[in-house]
Amino acid sequence: MKKALLIINPSSGGEKAKEYAQLAQEKLNQSFDVLKIRHTKKSGDAKRFAKEAASEKYDSVLVMGGDGTVNEGISGLAEENYRPKFGFFPLGTVNDLARALDIPLDPKKAIDNFSIARTTSLDIGKINNSYFMNVVAIGAIPEAINNVDSEQKTKFGKLAYFISGFKELSNNETYSFLVTIDGKEQEITSSTLLIGSTNSIGGFESLLPEAKVNDGKLYLIYLKDPSLIQTIKAVPDLLKGVDEATANVGYLTFNQAVISLQDRNKKLATNVDGDEGDFLPVTIRILPTHLEVYH
């Protein structure tokens, strides 16, 4: 008997949220013998619901919500010995994982397209004791993203992130990072570091064209921009996609990294999958093919 849990974030999806929830329920009832539905009320609920489903040996856990809810669902499964198959119906602003998995961004199409016969493995990133599915950003752009409020996200989508990030870049604050990549230490001076596990970051689907959802690697890109002129030169390289180092952008692949500021008296927060994360220093690593996901 196949049991599935559908976790719904009722604050995602706007006016059509209830309609999407009904469509998802009808679709999933065609594939599972038992379907349990739980609604989130606060941050952390989706993670807890997913964790409980894993302990109760559910066959599948599915999430309906934005990137934050999807991250919570994945985080709830990541530490479990038994991990149910994972799926989601995107209702968020950016929906990077949906883009990387070629899941339709239109919720109705995503629901119609769902099939239990179509799965793939998915790498999961780990930063300290938390998990991510797409990106860890450190520096000027993420500092700006951390300040984008929910209303701006809803109204402007990924444009809100881009505008805020560009404003912050124009201030040209750079940081001196100490980065240990797979055991090799180096110094990097940059306004922004981006560590991605998929091709899509911030809604830009070709930012890391070589990245696959299950290639067992993390990708580090950073702007070589000690001055504003170099920042301006680096941004076009970044937006057209990075698959090798250039004069303006650094590029490395790795399995594990430790990142800190050379000035230990400074404080700098990370941004993890669009939400504020831990302050530096952080340890980041990849968990290869850690989940099986519907796509």
Automatic annotation (TrEMBL):
Any one GO molecular-function label of the UniProt entry: ATP binding
Record-level GO cellular component terms: plasma membrane
Listed cofactors: Mg(2+)
Listed Pfam families: DAGK_cat, YegS_C
Signal sequence coordinates: none
Domain DAGKc: 1-131
Metal-binding is among the record's keywords: yes
GO biological process, alphabetically ordered: phospholipid biosynthetic process
SUPFAM superfamilies, alphabetized: NAD kinase/diacylglycerol kinase-like
Keywords: ATP-binding, Kinase, Lipid biosynthesis, Lipid metabolism, Magnesium, Metal-binding, Nucleotide-binding, Phospholipid biosynthesis, Phospholipid metabolism, Transferase
Family statement: Belongs to the diacylglycerol/lipid kinase family.
Protein known as: Diacylglycerol kinase catalytic subunit
Phylogenetic placement of the source organism: Bacteria, Bacillati, Bacillota, Bacilli, Lactobacillales
